[in-house]
Structure formats: structure tokens, C-alpha cells
Amino acid sequence: MKNKNLKILLASPRGFCAGVDRAIEIVKKSLDKYDSPVYVRHEIVHNKYVVDSLKKIGAIFVDELEEIENITRPVIFSAHGVPKSVPKEASNLNMTFVDATCPLVSKVHREAENLNKKGIHVLLIGHKNHPEVIGTMGQLPKGHIDLIESVEDAKNYRNKNKKKLAFVTQTTLSVDDTRKITDVLKTKFPGIYEPKKEDICYATTNRQAAVKKISKKCDMFFVIGSRNSSNSVRLVEVAKNNGCDKSELIHSESNVPIDKISNCRIIGISSGASAPEALVNEFIDKLKKEFTVEIEEVEIVKENIIFNIPGKLK
């Protein structure tokens, strides 16, 4: 087994995006400024490794503000964004809060609000119960925004109140799947407003494009990321839809499928936008114990985007 040659095509860009980097930095800087503990509402990003490492330095994760035992301590809102009711509740409790919502998610929030102010009914393309979708829908009063999850939903949608329509999207969707949905909406409602600049974020788009480029050359494809990470799960789908049926998510409880890999000559590897590079290296190190590995990094674009952290933490 040891002498078996294995070629790895390593997708680039992969892993952390600017919004995830910023959110993690906000937690660390809040601990520096306010000391521990600081509370974080929901997982700051969808990755167990990241969450566990922040717990070790004094972050306490809660699902709702009412679980916070000491309201004199600061609370951080996760990168996925929160409904308007959450900062309002924190203000009513006189809590110090720091908003780590990704700026690209905030952009979608403002977009939805501005459309609503103009009397336009908003359709949100996204996945039900995903924190980002809950946050975006929570920017508008109930009944002013509807969720579209699939092509089927788009085909069946009825514009009951006869208002002008617009759509916005979750930032971590499959580019190809979303296009199929928007095509249906644009055909069905020819005057529908669409975002001036696509809502699916640059990092999601780049990571999917990198996976597309290499997946057809691979016998198997592996995406390092969490099961509740929308962008990681989408990357597995993209690999499957672009020539590599045997594509799998490697999450915190996964075993490395050495037996399956031993039947491969070439495998592909990428990682979701909330998965640290340490997990990619760990996965490759396990393969190096079993195979003679050759790594080729396939870069489609250089990412150099940085989002600033809030002024009060600098």
C-alpha cells in the first residue's frame, strides 16, 4: 500500500473566506478587549474545529440570548446574520453586542430592506432554516418576503398581492442551481427586479469554479467541511454534477476512506469557506501515511479581499 502512487489535485482558492476570517477575528479581539467569557449567539461559523478552538479561549456559544447567564458580558452575532429582533432584544436588555455578520450578507439585508421600502415584494432564494435565511427573512415584516427553495417552488409561485417582485439570494448557494431558479422566475415574471451585483458571494463562486475545473479529472473528490455548512455541501454537489460521482464531505466524524482511495489514481480536494487549512493538511497527512503522494495545486484566481473588523474592537 505504502508504495501506491496517488496524485492529489488541490483546488485553490479553498477554505476560509474574508467573512469567516473577520468573524473569527471579532471573537478573538472581543476576548482581548472584554476578557472572558464572551457569548456567541449560534456557531460563529459552521465548523466544529473553529468553534471548539474558540471555546478553549473563553467563548461560550448559545442558541438564544435568553440562555446567557450573565447579561453584563458581551455577545457576538454570528457571520450568518440575525433577524432584526435579535439586536433589538439585546438593546432592551442593555447588553453589549458585536455584530460579526459577513458584509456580503449585510449587503443582501440592505437590498431586501430597500426593495421593501419601495413597495416591492421580495423573494429570497435559499434553504429553509439555514441561519442566513432566517436572518435575511427577519429583516422584513412577516408577509413581505417569501422563500423560494427550488425550481418547483419558482414554477408554483403565485404573486397573490400583485405587487412588483424582486429576488435576492442566500450567499452560499450553488451558482448553477440558483441560475435555474432565477431563469424560471425571470421567464414567469418578466419585470422582476434582480440584484445589480449577484448576491452569491465571491468566495462561494470561486470555490465552486475551482472544483468544477478539476472534478472531471478525479476518481474521487473530497470536500473538507461541516455537514451544516451550506457552501461545503454545495461543493460536494458541484463535484458530482461536474464529472466526479464519487464525491464526499469529510467532516469532524468522518473516517478517511483509505480502501476506496486505494482504487484511485487521482483525487481532488477542496474545503468549505469555514474550514481551516489545518484540517486540509491533517487529511493530506493521513494519506501520506498510506500512499506516495504527489500534490498539484490548481489555482483559478487569487483572492486578496479583507473585511475590516468593527472600529470599537481595534
What does this structure look like?
Strands 10-9-11-1-12 form a five-stranded parallel β-sheet, with helices on both faces. Strands 3-2-4-5 form a four-stranded parallel β-sheet, with helices on both faces. With 314 residues, it is α/β, with parallel strands linked by helices. It folds into three domains: 5-16 and 202-299, Cobalt-precorrin-4 Transmethylase, domain 1 (3-Layer(aba) Sandwich); 19-99, Rossmann fold (3-Layer(aba) Sandwich), CATH 3.40.50.11270; 103-199, Cobalt-precorrin-4 Transmethylase, domain 1 (3-Layer(aba) Sandwich). The model has no long low-confidence stretch (mean pLDDT 96). Strand 9, helix 9 and strand 10 (247-250) form a beta-alpha-beta unit. Helix content is 38%, strand content 19%. Helix 8 runs parallel beside helix 9. The protein has helices at residues 18-34, 48-56, 85-92, 103-117, 131-137, 151-156, 175-188, 202-215, 230-241, 258-261, 277-288, and strands at 5-12, 38-41, 59-62, 75-77, 97-99, 121-125, 145-148, 165-169, 220-224, 247-250, 266-271, 292-299.
